[in-house]
Each structure stands twice: as structure tokens, then as C-alpha cells.
Design brief:
- Among the domains are: about 90 residues, Beta Barrel (Thrombin, subunit H), CATH 2.40.10; about 70 residues, no CATH class.
- About 10% of the residues lie in helices and about 35% in strands.
- By secondary structure, the chain is mostly beta strands.
- The longest helix has 21 residues.
- Helix 4 runs antiparallel to helix 5.
- It contains seven helices and 38 strands.
- The strands form nine sheets. The chain has a six-stranded antiparallel β-sheet with strand order 9-10-11-12-16-17, with no helix packed on it. It has a five-stranded mixed β-sheet with strand order 5-6-7-8-18, with no helix packed on it. It has a five-stranded mixed β-sheet with strand order 29-30-31-32-37, with no helix packed on it.
């Protein structure tokens, strides 16, 4: 009897229509709708398997279980012709590979390599600080062809540590991260404090050839095995009152007495002009997750605490949305925008996926709001409210029918009278207490908001999630997950009689005379090898409905 395959990698393609999986025995490609496996390979263990949309082009990296499967070797393969297009070997382990139709990005520990995907010509190399988390995101759209990655940490000197921001405090200049252009002169300098890792001379691997490149970099939102040391990070905000010390995560950074290590900024890099465009001050703490929207116009970020999710404009760098995911700290594993940028989904270690609505009611209209709300993240982890303390769902804030649905109400007058969908199987006592407490809090915030300025009101009542789902996984298991949002679909309620006939969503189905209701698919893949198909009511929000689930490991 053969031993079970271990999953090393899981991810959706750029549109969320396919799944790529790397295992200890090979890799497999699945279609999401209808679900099914349409390609597999059993040539050894794979640690990275990235798709280019729904084409036959794959970027794969082995796990090192055999000489030909080195984790330093990138292979571009054509699944239709069963051929290797190109192989490139790097001096250290590849942490991530990202692609769109014009660029291929390779990331090692402290360098980022940018290639022209049409001929695998090396265009640019970015040297950056050590990024053990492997965080990076690439825009699928060529109209807004951007790359985003965490900025090197900055040492800030300030006597008022609690209010230190890069808006009003000068940065130390002894550590800088540089960006070197291999295509010609005119190297760009990113003026952010940090330690640039050692970089070797860059080579070039042409079509069908091989090359060797010094590189290091970051990683996007894919799944790695539980307990992976890459997922562990140091404390995101460190204050030093004694003698100068050295950062454990970034040994090259020396922190003076009475200084703060700030590492919550994100660099936006234009992959068309091959120049950095701006540095966004996303969080005070270390970045844990980030993603660009499919059209490349929005950037979503979450810090190590995982309590606040922020959305920024790529064009201006300004914060346009801010959401509170929960009160207790948690790990954010992935985030994803819908195609129309109306929804943002975030999966976390609480085994809950939160969906936020990006509407007018949540839009951050003034810089004063952004400045005042920047302190929310630090307060969240300390001010644990009693309604969040129910054991079993500590991170979930079941705030249904809240401010996040107000944007829809403004354009659909009848929506205000519709209550969010509530899954009866999730009606625990703790959830009822939380819901009641949050309703009282919102009423209090609404009353106080009439007497306080807008910027104070935004602190009293930050936008919470519009909808959520809970994966049917045992609470004690350590499972990572990735989510994606699909295109709206029409669901025939007759195909799911157990759900829509006097079931959980009976009231929703009764409102449609034709028996067809429009829903938004929410797909989730988990590190234990399952894909879950949920649907979201775009009008009501609330609890998402589980339609089906499939195993990725069954033959």
C-alpha cells in the first residue's frame, strides 16, 4: 500500500479558474468548474507549480529530493507538448515565482529577478532585505503592470515611540536597499532603511537554454506545509531602550538606543518602466499578506497581527478602504479581489474566510481619517472585548447587517430591509452574544457619531466584514487556506432542494419566482487537500453557503 502524498504547494491561477498542486510525487492541475484533474506528472517532488492563466505554460521548481529537482532550478514547461522550454539555475533556493503575460518574477531570499516572459531575457534585478516569508504580488493586468513587495525595515529614531510614523520622523540613512538594472545604466535607488542582501552577478538564460543567476526574494499567497519555518517571523514592532542591538531577522540592521524598527511598508514597482514608483506606509507591524487586484489598480495588505486589512490606490498610494477582520491576532494566509473590485476576501488561521464589500460607505475620504485609523491595529490586540472571547471562534466577529452593507443600500433601496443570511449550523451561544454586543456597539457609535467629527466616528465604528464562511475542519488542526472570488452565477434552487426548500436559505429562494438566484462563487483550497465551493448572496451578505467540496488527493 502506497504512502499518502504530501502536499508541498497549492495555488489558484490568475483568474481562479484552475488549481495547481505540487506534491512529494509530482504535480497536478485541476479545473474548478466543473471540477476535475486534467494534467499530472510524477517525476519527483515539486515545491512550486505556477500557472500562466489557463495556458499550457507552467513554472515549476523541485524540492531537492533528487539532483534534477533542485530547489534552485526553475523550469518553464509546456504541458501540451510535454517539453521543457527553459531552465535557469540560481545560487540559492527559489522562494516564489509569479507571472503575467509580459513578465516572469523569480524571488530568492534577498533579490528579485524580472524576466521578459516571451524570451526569458533578464530585464532587471532588485536587491532587497531578507524576506523569509516570501511575500510578493504581481498584477495580472498589463494595463497596470505592477509588482509589490515588503520594503526593507527602517530604523526610526524618536522619543515619542508610540506615535512614530514615517510622516514626521526622519529615517536613518546608513542602510539603503538598491535596485540594479541589468538592462543598462541608470540604477534606481530606493531610499528606505534596510539591509540589502549579498547579490552575485546576474546571468541570462535564453529560450531553451540554461543560465545561472544570483538571486533572492519573496513569495506570494500560496500554501506551504504546516510548521514551515518560512511562516515564522519576528515581532513586527520593536522598541529598544538599551544599547544598540542587531535584528535577528535582518542581521545587517543595527538599531540604536531609543529606536523603533518599522517594517510595515510596501514598495510598488512598475514592471513596464522597471522603476519603483512609491513606498506605501501600510502598517506599523510586519507585513503578513498582500495582493494586487486583477486590474492592478488596488493593493490590499494585512500585518502580522491580522486584525486590520487595508486597501490602497496603486496610482496615488492613498488608503481608500480599511476593514477590521477581528479582534484577536491571527495569521492572514491569502487575500483576493473580485474581478470588479467590489469584494475582497481574506483567509486566516481561524479557518474563517471574511469577505469585505468595497463600497462608497467604506471609502476613506480624508487623510485625517487615515491618520487617526492608523492606530487601530495596535489597539486591537490589547483591547480584547468580552464578546470576542468565546472559545472556538476567537477571531470571528459575526457582525452581520453592519456598515459594510450600507454601500449596497444606497443604490438598492429595498436592500436595507433584507437581513443578512444566517447559517443555522453556526448559531452558537457565543456567536449570539457577539452579535448582540456588536449591535449595541454600533448603536452607541451611531449615537456618538452625531456629536463627534467624522474622523472620530470612523475610529468608533470601523467597517467590518460583509460576509463570512467557516471551513468544516476540526478546530485543533493546523490548516492553511487560499481563497478566490469568481464571477456572478445563476443558481437553480431546484438543484439543491436540501438547502433551498425550507432549508437554511429558504427565505432567499422564496424571493425568486423563477427559481434562479444570482450568487457569487467563493472557492477555497486547503492544505489538507480539499476544494470548497461556497456561494455568497451579493445583496444580503452574511453566511456563505457550502454547495460542494472535492478532494484533490483522490485519484
Amino acid at each position: 500500500m502506497s504512502s499518502p502524498r504530501g502536499i508541498n504547494f497549492l495555488n489558484f491561477n490568475q483568474t481562479g479558474s484552475c488549481i495547481s498542486m505540487g506534491t512529494s510525487e509530482g504535480f497536478e492541475i485541476f479545473n474548478c468548474d466543473p471540477f476535475g484533474k486534467f494534467y499530472s506528472d510524477e517525476s519527483g517532488g515539486y515545491g512550486i507549480v505556477e500557472m500562466l492563466f489557463s495556458t499550457s505554460l507552467l513554472a515549476v521548481v523541485g524540492v531537492g529530493d533528487q539532483p534534477a529537482m533542485s530547489p534552485r532550478r526553475l523550469r518553464i514547461i509546456n504541458t501540451k507538448r510535454h517539453s521543457v522550454i527553459c531552465e535557469v539555475t540560481f545560487p540559492s533556493t527559489i522562494l516564489a515565482v509569479k507571472m503575467n503575460k509580459a513578465r516572469l518574477i523569480v524571488l530568492l531570499q534577498d533579490q528579485i529577478y524580472i524576466y521578459d516572459i516571451s524570451n526569458m531575457r533578464l530585464l532587471h534585478t532588485i536587491e532587497t532585505a531578507t524576506n523569509l516569508r516570501g511575500l510578493i504580488t504581481v498584477s495580472p493586468s498589463l494595463d497596470s503592470n505592477y509588482l509589490a513587495y515588503p520594503s526593507p525595515p527602517k530604523v526610526i529614531k524618536s522619543e515619542i515611540k508610540g506615535h512614530a510614523t514615517t510622516n514626521n520622523i526622519s529615517l536613518t540613512s546608513n542602510d539603503l536597499a538598491t535596485s540594479s538594472n541589468h538592462a543598462g545604466p541608470g540604477d534606481a535607488l530606493i531610499s528606505q532603511g534596510g539591509s540589502a542582501g549579498p547579490g552575485g552577478p546576474g546571468g541570462q538564460g535564453g529560450q531553451g537554454g540554461q543560465g545561472s543567476h544570483g538571486a533572492s526574494g519573496a513569495h506570494g499567497s500560496h500554501l506551504s506545509p504546516p510548521g514551515d519555518p518560512v511562516a515564522a517571523g519576528n515581532s513586527s514592532l520593536e522598541v529598544f531602550d538599551g544599547n544598540a542591538t542587531s535584528s535577528g531577522n535582518n542581521p545587517g540592521i543595527t538599531k540604536a538606543a531609543n529606536s523603533i524598527l518599522k517594517n510595515g511598508d510596501v514598495i510598488l514597482f512598475n514592471m513596464q518602466t522597471l522603476q519603483p514608483t512609491m513606498v506605501i506606509e501600510a502598517h506599523k507591524g510586519e507585513i503578513a499578506a498582500l495582493t494586487l487586484s486583477r486590474d492592478g489598480t488596488l493593493l490590499a495588505t494585512a500585518s502580522e497581527k491580522g486584525t486590520i486589512v487595508r486597501v490602497f490606490s496603486v496610482e496615488t498610494g492613498s488608503k481608500v478602504y480599511q476593514f477590521r477582520r477581528g479582534t484577536y491576532p491571527t495569521k492572514i494566509y491569502s487575500m483576493c479581489f473580485s474581478d470588479d473590485n467590489q469584494f475582497l476576501a481574506a483567509s486566516s488561521s481561524s479557518k474563517t474566510v471574511h469577505i469585505f464589500k468595497l463600497g462608497k460607505a467604506e471609502y476613506v475620504t480624508t487623510s485625517a481619517d487615515a491618520q487617526n485609523n492608523s492606530d487601530l491595529e495596535d489597539q486591537e490586540a490589547e483591547n480584547y472585548s468580552i464578546d470576542e472571547a468565546e472559545e472556538g471562534e476567537p477571531e470571528e466577529t459575526a457582525s452581520l447587517g453592519q456598515s459594510s452593507s450600507a454601500s449596497y443600500d444606497s443604490s438598492h433601496p429595498d436592500a436595507a430591509a433584507k437581513e443578512p443570511v444566517v447559517d443555522a449550523s453556526r448559531r452558537t451561544v457565543g456567536r449570539m452574544i457577539r452579535n448582540s454586543s456588536q449591535k449595541l456597539s454600533r448603536k452607541a457609535a451611531k449615537t456618538l457619531g452625531a456629536y463627534f467629527p467624522i474622523k472620530v466616528t470612523s475610529i468608533l465604528e470601523p467597517s467590518r466584514h460583509f460576509a463570512s464562511l467557516k471551513l468544516p475542519i476540526e478546530s485543533g488542526a493546523t490548516i492553511k487556506s487560499i481563497t478566490t472570488i469568481g464571477q456572478p452565477v445563476d443558481i437553480d434552487t431546484a438543484e439543491y432542494p436540501e438547502l433551498f426548500e425550507n432549508g437554511l436559505w429558504g427565505s432567499v429562494a422564496s424571493e425568486s419566482s423563477s427559481g434562479m438566484i444570482k450568487m457569487i462563487p467563493i472557492r477555497v483550497i486547503s492544505s489538507d487537500g480539499y476544494m470548497y465551493n461556497y456561494v455568497l448572496d451579493p445583496v444580503r451578505g452574511g453566511d456563505c453557503l457550502l454547495l460542494s467540496q472535492f478532494s484533490l488527493l483522490m485519484d
